[in-house]
Amino acid sequence: MPNIKSFNVDVKADEGGSLTGYASTFDRIPDAYGDVIAPGAFAESLAKWQQLGKPIPLLFGHRTDDPFMNIGAVESAAEDERGLKFTAKLDPDNPNAQYSRKLLLEGRIHQFSFAFDVLDAGTTTLEDGTKANELRKLDLFEISLVPIPANQFATVEEVKAWADEAVAEAKAGRVLSRSNEDDLREAVQLIQGVLDKAAPADAEEPEPKSLQTEDAEGDAPTDEAGAKGALVLEQIRKTLNRTDQ
């Protein structure tokens, strides 16, 4: 059986079909199992995946027994100074993948996990004098969305939207499908929820909203993010107004 490690995920969500974040970090704070991961631990495994020419699977809950729980594919993965950063695309034809996207957007699931085998490990002494088990070489099998974390530092940095692409097509005179129109209307609700949350404390009470997103500390979006969200929201509304005419 492979080893498993999990990480918290911070989702800056919109109507996205792909996500970028960290599957693992090199923070020198032991996780729930007393492990830290050394820089370079994934290097050989990533090189092996690249030589194989196949994507690292993105699964839900490490469900290797069910092909429909294979919800996407890792398009790129590399170590940087912080950890193992990757970009994965959710399968647009898999209902489980799209429902997982919904769960991410709503914040109902917000952790990563990855399955691996330990090829090299040993005891290390951390800066505060405590000892930890250092994982120095790992064989990476897959990355999963999971409900229970073991490490608090890995984050999803971006969930990329295809909504802008749909808006661009509409501006070019193309007709939106009913499915795309419904998705854009859902995007309006999501973005409006974020903008409402960013309003000043003395602002008028916003209408009730069911879907909201927060950053890792639970803070409201930045002013810059709010301005961008307002711009995207206005573009989508203009597109939907044209479809209603």
Structure overview:
By secondary structure, this protein is an alpha+beta fold. It folds into two domains: 3-159, no CATH class; 162-244, no CATH class. It is built from five helices and nine strands; from the N terminus they run βββαβββαβββααα. The protein has helices at residues 43-52, 95-106, 163-171, 178-197, 223-244; strands at 3-8, 16-25, 35-37, 56-60, 70-79, 83-90, 111-125, 131-146, 156-161. Strands 1, 2, 3, 4, 5, 6, 7, 8 and 9 form a nine-stranded mixed sheet that branches. α3 (163-171) crosses α5 and α4 (178-197) packs antiparallel against α5. The longest helix has 22 residues, at 223-244. The protein is globular, with a radius of gyration of 20 Å. 28% of the residues are buried.
List the helices and strands and how they pair.
Blueprint: E1 3-8, E2 16-25, E3 35-37, H1 43-52, E4 56-60, E5 70-79, E6 83-90, H2 95-106, E7 111-125, E8 131-146, E9 156-161, H3 163-171, H4 178-197, H5 223-244
Parallel strand pairs: 3-8, 4-8
Antiparallel strand pairs: 1-7, 2-6, 2-9, 4-5, 5-6, 7-8
